[in-house]
Specification:
Elements (H helix, E strand, L loop, with lengths): L2 E18 L4 E14 L4 E6 L3 H4 L3 H16 L7 H11 L4 H19 L3 H4 L6 E3 L2 E3 L4 H13 L4 E5 L4 H15 L4 E5 L6 H13 L6 E3 L7 H10 L3 E4 L6 H10 L4 E4 L1 H4 L2 H14 L2 E4 L6 H13 L3 E4 L3 H4 L5 E3 L2 E3 L2 E3 L8 E4 L3 E3 L1
Parallel strand pairs: 5-6, 6-7, 7-8, 8-9, 9-10, 10-11, 11-12
Antiparallel strand pairs: 1-2, 1-17, 2-3, 4-15, 13-16, 14-15
Helix pairs in contact: 2-3, 2-4, 3-4, 6-7, 7-8, 8-9, 10-12
The protein binds magnesium ion.
């Protein structure tokens, strides 16, 4: 099975409500969707959401990287020659992780189809389903309480609360949510780099002193501040997770060597796809550092790929794969299915995706 052609397109999917973090606000999910077409006619699907504030990749840079630089090098390559394809992806140009991830996902999809196996089994097959949390956007305390109660009514048992734009208000927000949802719901916080190291320690200690019960806190400090992250990890009892800091394989290697965090949030768009995400999971497993599988605001293609890896690897013990649930429509036919907070992997080969509705080709 050889790669015959690569087509690039877009989908735009409205959100149920605006998505707000300490870094940005968006009202719709814009996703670049690639089709890697084999000489057998089979199609591998991949995607890359332009999340410039986190990855540095814009819509135009993703399209340009795939169309002009990386894509042409893959034409004619054997899908069986997976490591060869991944080497081309890694060495064709520096950075551009999202573009590489889109192609990587599509090639893994084809590889699964080639051997008739669902991707999660190819990646280890440790479990066939998982639960996800639901993200609560950064708003006033009343609105966040309302959104949290709605999430619980819909069947979620873990909430990921966005904080980080005002430490004093963050404490109010989280305390109000804890009081409203009761003691049994898991609450994890994501500060999205919003605090200084000392501010993070002060704020997290206040959560601890008040007995609010926080499962973990994601990315309290700036992405580049590995020493600050380590300082926070050492100064508080609560588990600290690296997200924006844990970008690619090299950054994760450094964080693990420094013992700078308690957990790693793996995302395909940071890692540059499944091939590197596997390396990250394996490095973390070697050091006994548990992982969460995360995502960007993206279509169910990337969510299915991420869920396949999370299902494959024992060390990926948590999932934050709610993007598809935040969308008002689902253009992806096939892939993972959702039942309340459960994500169920498909048994069809590859990603189990057969079509993308509303896909508009870009030339
Ligand atoms: Mg995060």
């Amino acid at each position: 099975m050889k790669i015959r052609e690569i087509k690039i397109g877009k989908v735009s999917i409205p959100l149920k409500k605006p998505f707000k973090t300490a870094l940005r606000q968006v009202n719709s999910a814009e996703d670049i969707v690639v089709k890697v077409i084999a000489d057998s006619g089979e199609i591998g699907f991949g995607n890359a959401p332009p999340t410039a504030v986190i990855t540095g990749d814009s819509q135009d840079s993703i399209i340009g990287a795939i169309r002009d630089t990386i894509g042409p090098k893959l034409i004619g390559m054997e899908v069986d020659h997976l490591e060869g394809i991944m080497t081309v992806l890694d060495t064709s140009m520096l950075h551009n992780q999202s573009a590489k991830a889109a192609l990587d996902i599509a090639v893994y999809d084809l590889f699964g189809k080639r051997y008739g196996l669902p991707l999660y089994k190819l990646l280890g097959g440790y479990r066939s389903e998982m639960t996800t949390d639901l993200t609560i956007s950064l708003n006033g305390p009343e609105e966040m309480v309302r959104d949290s109660l709605e999430a619980i009514a819909a069947g979620y048992t873990a909430l990921k609360i966005k904080v980080g734009n005002d430490a004093a208000l963050d404490i109010q927000r989280v305390q109000a949510i804890r009081e409203a949802v009761g003691p049994d719901i898991l609450i994890r916080l994501d500060a999205n780099q919003g605090w200084t190291p000392k501010e993070a320690v002060r704020t997290i200690r206040r959560f601890e002193d008040r007995g609010i019960g926080i499962e973990l806190i994601e990315q309290p400090v700036k992405a580049h501040d590995f020493h600050g992250l380590k300082y926070v990890t050492q100064q508080v009892e609560t588990d600290i997770m690296a997200d924006e800091s844990a970008f690619g394989t090299y950054e994760v290697f450094q964080l693990l060597a420094m013992e700078a965090c308690d957990l790693i949030n793996i995302k395909l768009m940071k890692a540059g796809g499944l091939h590197n995400a596997v390396k990250i999971a394996d490095m973390a497993a070697t050091m006994g550092i548990r992982c969460m599988m995360g995502c960007m605001l993206e279509s169910k293609i990337g969510i299915t790929a991420a869920a396949s890896l999370a299902a494959g690897k024992q060390i990926i013990v948590k999932s934050d794969l709610d993007a598809a649930v935040l969308l008002a429509e689902d253009p992806v036919v096939g892939g993972v299915s959702f039942d309340k907070d459960r994500i169920i992997l498909p048994d069809a080969p590859g990603l189990g995706i057969t079509d993308i509705k509303g896909w508009q080709e870009v030339r």
